[in-house]
Amino acid sequence: MLDYTKGEEAQMEQAVRELHDANVKVVVCGSGVGDLAIHYLNRFDMIVVRCPSKFELRRLCRVVGANPLARFGVPTPEEMGYCDEVRTDEIGGDRVTILRQWSASELASRPSADRPAFADRIQRSPLVTVVLRGATVNALDDAERAVDDGVNVIKSLTKDARLVPGACATEMELSRRVQERAEQTPGINQHAMKAFGQALQIFARTLGDNVGVDSTALVAKLIAAHHASASDGLVGPSIGIDVECENEPRVLDAKEAGILDPLSVKQWAIRYAVQAALTVLQVDQIVMAKTAGGPKLPKQQGNWDDQD
Length: 308
What we know:
- 47% of the residues lie in helices and 11% in strands.
- The chain has twelve helices and eight strands.
- Helix 1 (2-21) crosses helix 2 (35-43) and helix 7 (169-183) runs antiparallel to helix 8 (189-199).
- The longest helix has 23 residues, at 137-159.
- The radius of gyration is 32 Å and the shape is extended.
């Protein structure tokens, strides 16, 4: 047993020494680290970081330009990553480990002679970490949703940069055009088209209810504006809802107010809604869920000598 223990220690020391000789300063692993490995890593002045999340581990590899390895051995220069700064800090009462790449100005003011040749390509990594702080959990959740919505909008615009007026202006204009097309369509199909056009007005009704105004009057104003029959002069396909109204429903020009939505978001939302409605209409039989067969358990009865 003593020889086995000494052999295990010698192998672990040899493996850590090879990592140290390869100029490895930080080891990131996805599982636990034994006490013996921590001992030798500490002996050779190396940092070990445990990252149990596979998503975070892949993200960390993209930041530092490394490749995840399934073996414990010396990585090649192509497999190793690099970062300029590794430190621990306290954020909101929690200790966090920060791996950071220096900016161009920081590199100019603090030149490092130990930077490898492949560090310049890693410096252009597009990944960043956004730290949010809030006084309450609700405020923090709202901030997180706002950041998530903003990132998704930018992601959507990189694929399709076309924008349409927001504030329910696009839905109301689609409703008008579908109903006008229904008037020109002969046969029974025009009734389905009219119903589809009227269903698009539910967006404006829902937004009006959320604002706290009369949704019926609001939809009437939008219909008049999109049919070029409004009395206040606000007409056109870009007329939407003014959510800052207090008592009476008001409309505004969404395009002039800068209220725009990505076209792809509107397109996929309407497409999914139509698919859901068609799925419901295609169901021609309802299967009622019943309890499984088999013997039923007898009802629990009291003991024969109970006095109640």
